[in-house]
Design goal:
Blueprint: E1 20-26, E2 36-39, E3 42-49, E4 55-61, E5 67-75, E6 80-92, H1 96-107, E7 111-116, E8 121-124, E9 131-138, E10 148-157, E11 162-164, H2 171-176, E12 179-182
């Protein structure tokens, strides 16, 4: 593997925004082990996702304090590098239905399609899936406190989360890459 850098970078404009708009969970087993097609010239951009079954993408809308980070973990002594992908998600309001979904997310290892407020999509847990590594179910202490769920999902991967080639978060756009949108009530 060549480790030589190949590109410089100029200072960019100050027109970026942060934050997450939504996450889409897929069941780990629904996507084939090598069920990804990359852009012909860029292996950091996924253009198609395939599975043995219909791949449902369960949409969870977000607003506020949710975030997605990738930490680079590298050891010169061991000659290893991996990328720790972490989604810190906040879901408002306690419900029986969400209790069940939190349990299922905690037991499984979903892949997560992350949509940021700038319109970018990233696929976390590409090869190994993501695990719930922490979280809370809280009622809050006073009337203005969170009554809901916080979840931390972590994936350890060989590369940073890939971009996914989507122009929008519509069901039609998800179908282009092989995902069927399932929205909540």
């Amino acid at each position: 593997m060549a480790c030589d850098i190949s590109l410089g970078r100029k200072e960019v404009c100050k027109d970026s925004i942060g934050g997450l708009r939504a996450v889409y969970f897929t069941n780990y087993a629904d996507i084939d082990a090598n069920g990804y097609t990359y852009d012909g010239t860029d292996t950091d951009m996924i253009t198609l996702i395939t599975g043995a079954v219909t791949i449902n993408a369960y949409k969870y809308e977000l607003k506020g304090t949710s975030s997605f980070d990738t930490n680079i973990v590298s050891s010169r002594e061991n000659g290893t590098t991996y990328f720790e992908q972490t989604a810190n998600l906040t879901f408002k309001k306690l419900t029986v239905e969400m209790h069940k979904e939190v349990k299922l997310l905690s037991y499984g290892r979903p892949r997560i399609l992350v949509e940021d407020n700038a319109g970018n999509f990233y696929l976390a847990g590409l090869k190994f899936g993501c695990d719930v590594t922490g979280g809370t179910i809280v009622t809050g202490a006073s009337m203005g406190d969170l009554s809901g769920y916080t979840l931390t999902l972590t994936g350890m991967e060989l590369a940073p989360a890939n971009f996914v080639d989507l122009a929008s978060d519509t069901a039609a756009a998800l179908l282009v890459v092989g995902l069927t949108l399932v929205e909540g009530a």
